[in-house]
Amino acid sequence: MTPDDLAPDWRKAWSAVDRAQFIPPVIWATTPDGYRRIDRADEPDVWEAAVDQDQPLVTQLDDGAEDGPGTPTSSASMPSLVARMLDVLSVRDGHRVLEIGTATGYSAALLSERLGDDHVTTIEVDPVLAEAGRLALHAAGYHPTVVTGDGTAGHPPSAPFDRIISTAAVRRVPPAWLEQCRPNGVIVTPWGTAYNNSGLLRLETDWAGGASGWFVDNVAFMWVRGQRRATHGRRLFGDLVRDEHEQQAEHSTTGVHPGEVGAEHPDFAIGLQLPDVDRRVYWGSGDAADEYTVWYLAEDGESWASVDYAPGMTEFPVAQWGRRRLYDEVTAAYRVWIDWGRPWREQFGLAVTPTGRQRVWLSDPDNLVAEV
């Protein structure tokens, strides 16, 4: 989606807010070889070109720690995705909006331009990011309510809200969002499982205190910090897969192509069935650059599996260790997806009760297929 596809009121707001004002001096841009650090002081033209592109820009690594492994923990979303999420939020004049994840402040600025400062509350868990976002907003002339705190708790002093939008993914829709959103309100959030983090969920709240709605798009956001995978920050080799595990693993082969199992829509459906399994893909390098291994890691650390791919293979090596046979579980879930009729992600919906119980349906709210 491009800004030109937005409704006129949003196009006006979009034209008034300059993304570059909200991007910090040091960013990391995605390249074929990983993340490239770009400092505006050293490479102003490169920095400006990166900011002008429709691409996400990493703005923080390792929650701001100096000695971390280099895991992205905050970013500025690609503008087309920001436009898409604001579009499905369906705001109207007079609406009060809560944003989860201030980050750079850019989305809060767009909301403030569209609705007015006094109708926007934005909350950020990281104190450093919250202060940077607040300063950027003020410098650009916007003064929404900026709160430093846990976004999953919402912000009761500003509630109730007509709309809630999260720029961080959740595995469980927080009950506080349901409590603080008016009936017939809208909640837009990235949603996923440990296995697959790709759903953009649009919920409509009801008078009973629950909400339900469809998955409307493919997105990938960082998790809210309190709902990260249990395997977050843990190294594959040494932490999750140890030498003694590999010696004890059972080995076999499969004729099921890993690329078929890992395609966009079956991957989402498998995650609904195995929400406590972390899936990772590691590519080779050099002469093996077109080879890869898919790893499946139980969040409790008690089981793992892997499957290898190389061009020309018709049988793919499998290894499984631990009390669960995770690769067998994955292929069984893949076959269930086939039995369901090979649905796309957007054919699924989710209902959540006031207490946070989540049920997923397929094609019809009465056709429940998973509880996550």
TrEMBL record:
Its EC number is 2.1.1.77. Residues 52-79 are annotated as: Disordered. Coiled coil: none annotated. Keywords: Cytoplasm, Methyltransferase, S-adenosyl-L-methionine, Transferase. GO terms for cellular component: cytoplasm. Pfam families: PCMT. The keyword Nuclease does not apply. GO terms for molecular function: protein-L-isoaspartate (D-aspartate) O-methyltransferase activity. It is found in: Cytoplasm. CDD domains: AdoMet_MTases. PANTHER family: PROTEIN-L-ISOASPARTATE O-METHYLTRANSFERASE (PTHR11579), PROTEIN-L-ISOASPARTATE(D-ASPARTATE) O-METHYLTRANSFERASE (PTHR11579:SF0). Belongs to the methyltransferase superfamily. L-isoaspartyl/D-aspartyl protein methyltransferase family. This is Protein-L-isoaspartate O-methyltransferase. It comes from Allostreptomyces psammosilenae. The lineage of its organism: Bacteria, Bacillati, Actinomycetota, Actinomycetes, Kitasatosporales.
